[in-house]
């Protein structure tokens, strides 16, 4: 059986009814590239050296020349690890990559870059529960109320 593309795996996660079924889909399709891409999407310290949003590119209209399974190995060119690459070169490489991927996988990569990958039930907690070593423990959010945050601004404006 041929392995599913990253897009197909994420679609299967979205279709799975229960949390346990979603975990099973991830585990059954586990690969270095899937783990790396989910880590880039959910890790709080993941940082890309590509501007936010979709760059201007022409979506691939033919059979994809490559896949995220293969290209995930080259993520360091676009993240903190690839700092010594000139920005123009990095952005050009990224656009070229998007144009070689299937349109679905190009959209997924853009979403991951912006840490906005969204599939039903695909959460930080699901990924952390599936692969405990992949992501750090999430810190509890501060419970500061909105009114406490707005009061100092009002005082500054009146000064």
Question: What order do the helices and strands come in, and which of them pair?
Answer:
Layout lengths: L5 H10 L3 H10 L3 H11 L25 H4 L15 H14 L2 H11 L10 H7 L15 H13 L1
Helix pairs in contact: 1-2, 2-7, 3-6, 5-6
Can you walk through the features of this model?
- By secondary structure, the protein is mainly alpha-helical.
- The chain is built from eight helices and no strands.
- The chain has helices at residues 6-15, 19-28, 32-42, 68-71, 87-100, 103-113, 124-130, 146-158.
- Helix 1 (6-15) packs antiparallel against helix 2.
- The longest helix has 14 residues, at 87-100.
- The chain is globular.
Short key terms for the protein model shown above:
single chain, 159 residues, mainly alpha, 8 helices, 50% helix, 0% strand
As a percent range, the share of strand residues is under 5%
Low-pLDDT parts are 141-159
- Residue share in helix: 40-55%
Q: Summarize model confidence as the mean pLDDT.
A: 85
The largest pleated sheet is described as:
none
Per DSSP, the total helix count is 8
What is the first-to-last residue Cα distance?
A: 69 Å
Number of strands: 0
- The topology string of helices and strands comes to HHHHHHHH
Gyration radius (Cα, Å) is 19 Å
Principal-axes geometry comes out as globular
Give the helix/strand class: mainly alpha
């Amino acid at each position: 059986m041929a392995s599913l593309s990253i897009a197909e795996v994420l679609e299967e996660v979205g279709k799975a009814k229960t949390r346990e079924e979603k975990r099973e889909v991830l585990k059954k399709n586990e690969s270095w590239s899937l783990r790396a891409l989910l880590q880039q999407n959910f890790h709080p310290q993941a940082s890309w050296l590509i501007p936010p949003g979709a760059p201007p590119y022409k979506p691939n209209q033919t059979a994809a020349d490559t896949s995220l399974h293969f290209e995930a190995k080259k993520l360091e060119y676009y993240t903190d690890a690839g700092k010594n690459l000139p920005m123009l070169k990095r952005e050009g490489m990224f656009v070229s990559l998007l144009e070689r991927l299937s349109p679905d996988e190009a959209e997924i990569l853009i979403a991951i870059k912006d840490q906005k990958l969204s599939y039903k039930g695909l959460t930080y907690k699901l990924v952390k529960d599936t692969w405990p070593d992949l992501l750090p423990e999430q810190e509890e959010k501060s419970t500061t109320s909105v009114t406490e945050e707005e009061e100092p601004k009002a005082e500054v404006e009146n000064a």
